[in-house]
């Protein structure tokens, strides 16, 4: 649908082609003009580990998806998952892409005999809890706008968006409120050496035997990603 439904001025084809090529380079084999009529039979014939059905909104009624009447296609049959427009809810590329990510988690967990649970979101952190002395003052940039006379001559986007460098700049202004972005400030600020660094992307481990609950790490943390909590019959400890 992104190629034949969404107009090219909204979804430039060179970008779409590049994204499909990128998916191919990741090892996905794409079979074009290959119609699937019976999902379970195809699954058995192909000896697949799992199936993800993403057939869009238009042809969904014609395909025999087992237990579709159950109203919950996703997870309704073991090993068969579904997402995008074929499932109920908002129909847009953003949602379809999100369903793909969620399905990847669910399928990975299912193959490992587990069930995937979305991790809970961090608590909302208000502005006054941030420690902003770490941050450089960096103003937001205005996005370029198409001149009024040009808008009447075509379908080019009025709000032109940012190029790669400007996008990076805007992303770097994020305060990451409530989320650890691994700046090591708490690690450097802990007087007890209670905070250990894990691999990149895996955060830190706090040794509760060493932690005195002094709160220095919290004072150091720009994004208020650490909190102190009390454990029954034990001293207060930090938690990141
Ligand atoms: C005219 C139009 C304009 C839109 N504009 C926007 C927009 O500007 N922005 C936005 O975010 N969203 C837009 N959308 C919605 C967006 O296109 C969809 O939400 C999105 O493409 C859904 O992705 P999907 O993978 O679930 O399904 P699709 O993109 O529909 O892909 C389903 C694929 O499955 C194939 N298929 C179907 N049945 C079978 C079968 N039996 N066997 C094998 N293959 C099969 C189809 O051929 C198709 O390639 C628009 C939709 C339409 C119709
Ligand atoms: S609260 Fe614990 S982890 Fe944080 S700085 Fe103090 S001793 Fe270190
Ligand atoms: S918890 Fe805070 S101070 Fe520690 S690394 Fe993460 S963002 Fe930096």
What does this structure look like?
The protein is an alpha+beta fold and 240 residues long. Among the domains are: 35-111, no CATH class; 136-172, no CATH class. The protein is built from seven helices and six strands, in the order ααββααααββαββ. The chain has helices spanning 13-25, 39-46, 93-111, 148-151, 164-172, 185-189, 216-220, and strands spanning 51-53, 80-82, 195-197, 204-206, 227-229, 237-239. The strands form three sheets. Strands 1-2 form a two-stranded parallel sheet. The protein has a two-stranded antiparallel ribbon with strand order 3-4. Strand 3 and strand 4 (204-206) form a beta hairpin. The longest helix has 19 residues, at 93-111. The protein is flat, with a radius of gyration of 25 Å. The two termini are 43 Å apart. Residues 67-73 have low confidence and may be disordered. Bound molecules: flavin-adenine dinucleotide (FAD) and iron/sulfur cluster (SF4) (2 copies). Residues 190, 192, 194-195, 206, 211-217, 238 line the site of one iron/sulfur cluster. One iron/sulfur cluster binds at residues 180-186, 220-221, 223, 225-226, 240.
Architecture blueprint of SSEs:
Layout: H1 13-25, H2 39-46, E1 51-53, E2 80-82, H3 93-111, H4 148-151, H5 164-172, H6 185-189, E3 195-197, E4 204-206, H7 216-220, E5 227-229, E6 237-239
Parallel strand pairs: 1-2
Antiparallel strand pairs: 3-4, 5-6
The structure holds flavin-adenine dinucleotide and iron/sulfur cluster (2 copies).
